[in-house]
Amino acid sequence: MELFTDRVFIFHRFVLLTLIISFVAYFDSKSAVKDFTLIAGGPEEIAVDQAGYRMEDQKDFRIGRYVEGFKILNEKNDVVFRGKVTGPIHDQFADADVWKGEFTELKIPGTYKIQLSDSICSWTFKIGNDIYFTLFQTLVRGLYVSRCGFAVKDDAVSHPPCHLHDADTLLINGKRIPDGRDATGGWHDGGDYWRSTMSASQAISRILWPVELFPGAFDKVNPLLLPKERWGNRPDIITEAKWGLDWLAKMQSPDGGVSTGIGPAVFHMPPQLPPQYDPVRHLIGAVNSSHTAKTGAVFARAARILKSYDQQYAESCLVRARLCWKFLQEHPTLVAPKTNNVYGRNEDATDRIWLAVELFRTTGDKRFNDDFTVRFKKLDSAYPKAPVSTQTIRNYNLHEALISYCFIKIGADKAIQEKILAGLLGDCDRMVAGSMAEGYGNVLQAESWKERHTNGNALQMAWELAMAAELTGEKKYREVALRQLHFVLGANPLGKVFVTGVGSNPVRNPHYRPLSIRNLAPPGLVVKGPTHDKDYVREAFCGTPPPPEKSYTDLYATHWCNEPDIEVQGQIIGLAAYFFATALNSSH
Asked: Is the dihedral of CA 183, 144, 457, 468 positive or negative?
C-alpha cells in the first residue's frame, strides 16, 4: 500500500509540474519572434554545418549580410585559410540576400571556426572523413531512446520498461475485443507514446538502405549500445532495425494482416510524464491493408538484407512478407475499419506496388514482377509528383518503390526502369535548380513551407537525390543532397542545429515527453523544423511571423516545429549512414 501511495504521489507531482511547464512555455512561445530574431554580431548568423565537412566535399558557409572577407582559424587560433564571399543570392524563404564563403580547398582534418572581417566568429566545426560516422552513431542512439517496453539506459532519459500491460484489447468499428497477444516493443512514434506500424516501417526501411548499398560498411563500427541491448555482435544499426521488426511481427495476425499499431481509442495526448507513468489506456488497432502492404515490403527488404547477419531470421521475415501478400490477394480492395487513434491510411494502391517490388527484388519470382507491371501501368506517370502534406513523410512510399525497382539487375522490365529513371532525374533536376536559386540551398518550395515536417520532407528529397547519384554517378545530385543535411545541422538562417546534442547550438527543448525525467534532451533527436503551418503561426507569434526558414522556436510547447518523429529519425540516420559509407568508398 505504501508503494502504491508513493506512485500516486509521484504521478500527481509530475502532473502538477507538467501544467506549470506547459503554462510557462505556452506564454513564452508568444514572444518567440523577438527570441529568434537574429542580431548581427553572434555566431548564429554564420550558417555553417556544426557537425562538420568531409575532406573532399564542397565546404562553405552562408551569411545574410556582406563582409569584406573571412579567415578560417584552427584550435590554436592560427589562420589556415583566407577567402572572400561571393553573392548575393536572394533566399525568398528567409527573406534575405545571402553571401557565400567557400573553403573547399581546406582538407586538413581538425576543428575550426570562421572569423569574419569584422571579427565575428562562427560556432566550431570539424573537417574529417569520420564526421558522419560520429553523427550517425548519435542518431541511431536517438532512435534507441524511444524504445517502448524496454529498460532504456541514458544519461537524460533512463527509465524502466514501460507500457507492458496497456494494450490487451483490439478495437474494430467501435467494438472492443479481448486480445491476448504480447504487444510490447517498438518505438514511441515521437513526442507521444503511441506506436504506429506505418511509422515503424518507414524508419526501418530507410535505415536498411545504406546497409544494402554498402555491404559490410557498418560491421566494424564500434557499438554504442550495451551488450545486453544489442543483437549479438551485430552493428547498432542492424540491432535497432531488428528491434522494430520484432514488434511489427507482433502486430501481424495469423492471416497475414497487420494492425495499425497501439494507441488510444480517441485522440488524447498523454501529459508530460515519463513513459512508465503514462495514464492513457492504449488499444490495439485493427488490421489495415495499407499498413499490411508497408510492413510486408519492409519484411521483404529485411529478408534480403539481413540474411548475411542471420539466415534463419531473414527467412522468417520472408515468411511474414509472403503472409502479407497472401492477405492482400485475399482482400483486393481497401481494408480500413474504424479503429484506434494512430496514423491510418484510406488508400493502399501505391503500398501494394511497394510490396510487389520488394518481394520481386528479394525472390526473383516473376508473379511479383507481373503484379508490379500491371499496377505501374495504372499510374498517372512513370514517376508521379509526391503529395505536399505533413503526412507525406510517413504515409507515402511510391517513390521508394519505384527507385527500388530501378536497382533490380535481373528480370526487371528495362523499359519501365528507363521511364522511372527519367522521371526521377527530372524531379532531381528541379530540386537542384530550386536549391541553387535559394541562398541557403534548401530544396523546399513555397507549398512545402506551409506544412509541418519540413526537415523530414527535405531529407526525403535528399534521399531521392542520393539515390539518383547512385544510379547515374552524377555528382550534382549528391552535393545537393548533402546541402540538405548541412541545413539541418546548422547551415540555415537561424544557425540552429535541428538535432539534440549535436554542435554548439542544438535543439534543447524538444516536444518529447521523456524530457520530463530529468529535463534534459537525449542526443540525436531530429525535430520537425521551421514552418509556416497555420496553427503554429497563429499560436506562436504575435503580428507578422518571421519568414518560413526562420519560423521556429526551441520550446517544448511548440510541437508544430519541435517534435521528433521516428520516420524522420530513420531518414536522417539513413542519410548520415550513406555519407559515412561513401566516405569509405573511394569510388565516391
From this structure: negative
Give the C-alpha separation, 176 to 169, whole Å.
6
Angle, CA of 459, 481 and 89, to the nearest 5°: 105
Q: What three-state secondary structure class fits 573?
A: helix
Check if the beta carbon of residue 275 is closer than 8 Å to that of residue 24.
no
Q: Which residues contact 289 (CB under 8 A, 6 or more apart)?
A: 257, 327, 328, 331, 333, 334, 335, 336, 348, 351, 352
Integer Cα distance of 274 and 13 in angstroms: 12
Q: What is the DSSP string of 310-347?
A: -HHHHHHHHHHHHHHHHHHHH--S----S--SS---S-
pLDDT tens by residue, 444-488: 999 999 999 999 999 999 999 999 999 999 999 999 999 999 999
For residues 276 and 272, give the distance between their C-alpha atoms in angstroms, rounded to a whole number: 12
User: Which residues does residue 86 pair with via DSSP β-bridges, in sequence order?
Assistant: 100
From residue 51, how far is each of 371, 496, 525 by CA, in Å? 44, 12, 14
d(CA 474, CA 20): 53
Cβ atoms < 10 Å from Cβ of 104? 14
Question: Per DSSP, what are the bridge partners of residue 195?
Answer: 262
Give Cα 309 to chain centroid, integer Å.
25
Compute the distance between CA of residue 529 and CA of residue 550 in angstroms, rounded to an integer: 9
Q: How sure is the predictor about 40, in pLDDT bands with cuts at 50, 70 and 90? A: low
Per the CB < 8 A criterion, the answer to whether 218 and 235 are in contact is yes
List, in order of start, the domains of the chain with CATH numbers: 43-128 (2.60.40.10), 130-507+555-586 (1.50.10.10)
**Quick check: 370 and 433 in contact, CB under 8 A?**
no
| pLDDT value at 118 more than 90 | yes
The owner of cell 513513459 is 275
Read off the amino acid at residue 358: E
What pLDDT, in 10s, does the model give residues 324-381? 999 999 999 999 999 998 988 889 999 999 999 999 999 999 999 999 999 999 999 9
In which order are the strands placed within the sheet that holds 46-47?
46-47, 60-63, 96-102, 85-91
